[in-house]
Amino acid sequence: xxxxxxxxKYRPQKFKDIIGQEHITTALANSIIRNRVPHALLFTGPSxxxxxxxxxxxxxxLNCIGRPIPTEVEGLTSAQAADLIEPCGTCVQCEEIAKSIxxxxxxxxxxxxxxxxxxxxxxxxxxxxxxxxxxxxxxLIDEVHMLSTSAFNALLKSLEEPPPxxxxxxxxxxxxxxxxxxxxxxxxxxVRSISSLKIAELLSEICKAxxxxxxxxxxxxxxxxxxxxxxxxxxxxxxxxSAADGEISLELAEKVFGARGAEFYGRLCRAxxxxxxxxxxxxxxxxxxxxxxxxxxxxxxxxxxxDLLIVSTAADRNPEMVLQATDLTSGEMKAFSALAANSDPxxxxxxxxxxxxxxxxxxxxxxxxxxxxxxxxxxAQMPSLLSISEMLGKLQSGKVPVASSRSLPLERxxxxxxxxxxxxxxxxxxxxxxxxxxxxxxxxxxxDKWTSFLTYLNNSGGEVVLAAFLRRVVATELxxxxxxxKGTKHDIEALNEPSALSPLKALLGRFFGGSNxxxxxxxGEVEEISKSSVA
Length: 535
Prior knowledge:
The chain is α/β, with parallel strands linked by helices. It has helices spanning 6-9, 22-33, 51-63, 78-84, 92-98, 116-126, 149-160, 180-183, 196-209, 216-225, 230-243, 250-257, 262-273, 277-289, 294-314, 319-326, 330-340, 345-364, 368-381, 388-397, 446-458, 464-470, 489-495, 498-512, and strands spanning 40-44, 105-109, 137-142, 166-172, 187-190, 474-479, 482-487, 518-523. The strands form two sheets. The chain has a five-stranded parallel beta sheet, with helices on one face. It has a three-stranded mixed beta sheet with strand order 6-7-8. The longest helix is centred in the middle third of the chain and has 21 residues, at 294-314. It is elongated and about 100 Å long.
């Protein structure tokens, strides 16, 4: 006998075997046991999650004659009802339907039978007598969205008012391609993606049944790459079994599928958080040297940062929600939490925005690797991605040297002491004439004021990070009590945070004098030379 792939060998034959679709199996069981069978049903959902399988099992349950239907249904729970209507699998109807030779269930491929003539053949069979022993005439159309518009129109009347004991069952992965006139005539059941944890559990059971040894890391790798589809997970496992000489390891799985696991992306993220662009580039080079699939790499990279963002935002307050949203195990969530502790949610959001833009660019570029390398270096070196309050605290505690490699190069300018700076208060044009005391302090041009202030911050020990931020923006106004700043969105948002704005105002007052400083922010493009254009 020819080899039967795992996806077919372990295809569910009963409702209880369908993983993660209890909301559908409960409704179907109740419709049969309470004699409320609709004349048209639509099963829809992602590929490989059980659309066609659910339709076939429901067809067997409708025509099964090997199990009795109770007359008293009051007081039955959903689980009890599901057990009572499971197809027996041994009666004539169940066996014929399973072998696709039943006269009562006609399964049609919508992709190859999509014309008006094909639908007309279905209509001609509607009024034929139900085959002996069968309860219903069932027309199961798979990939129903492939029917032509004319075919759908030809089916409408029969679909709305079919003969007694006739049931239409449709299955599709693209319900948006089905006309609304058809959708409105069907009872719709949405099949959901299956969690990676449930996929891993079933794959583990199948490996035991097949006497296959697989590591826990490889099992999680396969279940996450299945992306909610059980059929994809089984197909991947089939491929690994063929490639393995002994135990299926994570290293083998990464090699076979040209991908990397969560540990790799964790190392890459850690290198970015610590500003080690060399380590980050080395990891990217290692991935591409291993013939990694670029689309898988980009998809996994974005998914990793998305999970990291959710964990960093809500893991402490709502761990159950995080586990459900990310499909992580408790151990994996703890590892993500430890990694996210090196940054904060605001920074991770900025990183995600940069990565998302890089991914879109890489998918359209002839040199996707170069795009990703540039994005990784940008993330590892941009001061605007630092947490100002956190970095200032580290600098003041001595955990980070003042001459940080991440700070931007500063001009060699001799600092000017605050006593040598004098700023004249603006006098209104209509002010009354009065004798004003002469200001004896030395004045310097506005450009020198700004440069001296930045140098003062850099030489103040703990203010080097704030100085690095301010050198990335343009000072558009500088007068006593007022400072205007123009810069990119990321830099303006960083400087406008309380952890940066409060120290900035205090330092302005300490250096220039005055109190209650007002800082006005403007978002816009910044030219490198324009930093000297202080008003």
